[in-house]
Amino acid sequence: MESTRLINNVNAACDWVIKLLYLNLLWILFTLEGLIIAGLFPATVAMFTVMKGYLAGENVRVFNAFKKVYKEEFRRANRLGLVLLILPIILYTDWQFTNYLSGTVEMMAKGILIGSTCLYGVMLIYIFPVYLQINRKVFTALKMAFLIGITYPFHTIMMLTSIASLLFLFVFLPMAGYLFFSSGLACMVSFFSFRLFQKIGDRAEKLQKRERPRWTSITNTID
User: Fold this and answer.
1) What pLDDT, in 10s, does the model give residues 1-38?
2) Residue 185 has what pLDDT?
3) Is 221 exposed, middle or buried, given 0-12, 13-18 or 19+ CB atoms closer than 10 A?
4) Which residues contact 202 (CB under 8 A, 6 or more apart)?
């Protein structure tokens, strides 16, 4: 019994290794197909879409699904990417401007910018799962990623800690970083994000069930 369970666990682990390796390879190839700049964000959206299917236990035809999402999301994903690239440029420009200030004003301005950068980082780790969850609406995704990140700080801290641990591992095992960098991070972010979304959905459903009896009693009283 124990040996069977061990074999099943090993098979499952090997299956995930192969999946992550293949997904990382596809991400690299499709990013290069778009000459890196134009291919990066569509490839990332496609990778998170496939990862969502993996975690949901779906039988995903990886290459076909990846290629389909890459083509369908090429323009919208690059619009999202443009916003994500513009924001740090603005923050960096403002930071350079603060060098011309002095005293308390400089400290306050830099403090605000550091806080804004941290909030941008929080938004960034949620943006792709949220983008998929709300039917790929760019500016709504940006807003919701930010709100979820600050509303659920415990989950955000757990996710940041896990990402930092994974990056730390990649530093000491560079080959693992080459083989699993993008897919490993996508797996980590998707795992925490979609569990959080499920929790939010369950909580919203419970609230709706509580409100329905109240609303029914009110309407009966009016009638």
Assistant:
1) 566 776 777 787 888 889 999 999 999 999 999 888 89
2) 94
3) exposed
4) none
One-letter identity of residue 120: Y
- DSSP H helical segments within 134-173, as ranges? 138-151, 153-172
The structure tokens listed for 198 are 């499920």
Burial 9-46 (b: 16+ CB within 10 A, else e): eeeeeeeeeebbeebbebbbebbeebeeebbbbbbbbb
DSSP string, 27-79: HHHHHHHTTTTTTHHHHHHHHHHHHHHHHTT----HHHHHHHHHHHTHHHHHH
Distance in angstroms (rounded) separating the CA atoms of residues 60 and 56: 10
| Residue 189: HSE in the Cβ half-sphere, 13 Å Cα cutoff | 28
What single DSSP character describes residue 136? Answer: S
